[in-house]
Amino acid sequence: MLNVYIGYDPIETVAYHVLAHSILRHSSIPVSIAPLMRTQLKGIYTRARGPTESTEFSLTRFLVPALSGFRGWSVFMDCDMLCRMDFAAIAREIGRQSDKAVLVCKHDYTPSSKRKFLNKIQTVYPRKNWSSVMVFNNARCKALSTAYVNRASGLDLHRFKWVRDGLIGELPIEWNWLVGEYKHNPRAKIVHYTLGGPWFKRYRHCAYAKEWRNELNLAQHAKAGR
Description:
alpha/beta, three-stranded mixed β-sheet
C-alpha cells in the first residue's frame, strides 16, 4: 500500500477530489489517499499562516514523515495537479532509489509571472516547486520533527535545508510538469497547474484544461470497470 497525502485547501476542494480520482483511476497498485487538512492538525501544527503562504498546505506538507510515524514511504502532492500515470512507476522508483531520503523533480526555472492564482504573490527562491511532489523515505526524514516544522523558516523547508543534498533523489521532470511554465508535453505524467487551474474562471482555458474537465466528469459519473 502506497500512502499518498494531497494538500487540501477549501478554495480548491474540487481540485483535490479530481486529483485523487485520477490517481485511483490509473493506479494498478493499492494506494491510500488522505487530504492534508490544516483543520485536522490542531495540536500538531501550531504556526500561524504567513503572508507568502498561498495555500493552507504550504508548510504542513513537511509533516508527512511525522504523520507517517517515520516509517515506510509516503508521497506528497499539491492538489492543483492531474495524474496521467500508474503509481506503480513511483513504487519502482522507490525500489531503485531506496538509499535516498526524499525523491523530487529537480526544476531549474524562474517563474514567468510575479502573481499566480487569485492574485497570490509568486515567491521566487532556489529549488522552486521541488516540494510540490515529494516521495519521502520517512525513516530518513526524522529531521522533519513537528517541533522543527513549526519553527523553521518556510525557505529553509522548501529549499531542503533539512537534508543533505546527496540524499535528495531525482524523479523525471514529466512527473511534475508545470503548466504555463513549460511547453505543452503530451508525455507529461503529472501535470501541475501551478499558476492556476481550470477550476478558476481565469484559467478555464489553460493547457490540459479539457483533460481536467473530462476527469471531473468521470468522477461525477463513474461507471463500473476501467
